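Schema walk-through. Below, the input block comes first and the output block second. Nothing else is stored per chain. Lengths vary across the set, and this one has 440 residues.
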Amino acid sequence: MIKVGFVSLGCSKNLVDTEVMLKKLIDAGYEITPEDTEADVVIVNTCGFIQSAKEEAIETILDLAWLKKNRNLRAIIATGCLAERYREQILTEMPEVSAVLGVGSLSRIAEAVEAVLRGESFSAFDDKEKSPLGGERVLTTPEHTAYLKIAEGCDNRCTYCAIPLIRGGFRSRRIEDIVAEARELEALGVKELNLIAQDTSRYGLDLYGEYKLAELVRAICSATAIPWIRLLYCYPDKITDELVAELAENPRLLKYMDIPVQHISDRILSLMNRHGDSDLIRDTVKRLRDAVPDITLRTTAIVGFPTESEEDFEALCAFIKETEFDRFGAFTYSAEEDTPAAAMQGQIDGQTMQDRYDTLMEIQLEISARKNEAKVGRTLTVLCEGYDPVSEYYYGRSEADAPDVDGKVWFTSTKKLTAGSFVSVKIKEAMDYDLVGIVK
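--- output ---
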């Protein structure tokens, strides 16, 4: 039997695409292997969002090329964002790659594998605006947690971002289709459902003429008994009063929201073409915290955007200090070709960007450590994810911890626990980003 390996790079949205391709290949009769050294074909689902992601994708392909020379590997297939954006360059400059599929052609993955096994090259770049939304998939996450993509593409047109060029315009899936998938995931044992899109808060506007995220959450809760539902990638300008009320009143909608702000300087926000100014951002944070006092807020910021002055950066630092986000990540600006920001005057040098990044993360480290220290003595509901035999601790996440991006809770238990179970953990110790406790 032909064995196919997968490498999924980048974001959780890309991971969902990988899972859809896995299902199509299994249905076509291929065996999936987690070991690259055993594979006849390896598919690299690439990310092309920023320079570091592109470099990771290229390095991954070049590493796999060694297996073509020295092991059983017969072909490498590139899919995803980098493949969509740099289709011609990959085809002409990377002979290691036998096939390239754009983001609109992922449903043709079995066709591509068949072609490369015949020794043929293959490429397909179908209209991404007409590509299927959703589809059956094979979960690669632990069986108790899953991502559910509710929309594709983006209409925000931030000047630094290439996603609309790569993924196309924003397209919502129908509520009934999303609910049907949520029910399928529940049947597989999923206890935590993470709703994702490039802009989750925009959900429904293109299909129904109004924001429908709150209604979607209610529909999922009505059709399933999944205990944890989490919202990621909600933009501050689209968080409606209805959604805030749902957060406050729905016990299964986790008191957690990821709201990427990217900056607080009005001048920089305008240059970024962000929708909403600093007053709107502050008002959104206040509305959320007033309505849901125990909410966990996560955000991200970009440092080193063209023309960012010391004054702009100091304003950002002051904002992070005063707002005290529970979770925070920073990025150094990456000049992406064909984006308006890449052509702007006043590009910031790399060392200055790195210094500003380090400063921001030092600020957040102190905030995070202090917030974690305040949880010592509290009892948290934790979703157990596994056991580490080296440390002899179980580990998991509280509702304040999203998978892959936030910290963990490490804990001991006198009883044997299984992954996917909910336990009450009394916190005994706080670290910078993780917590340590004992099952009550």
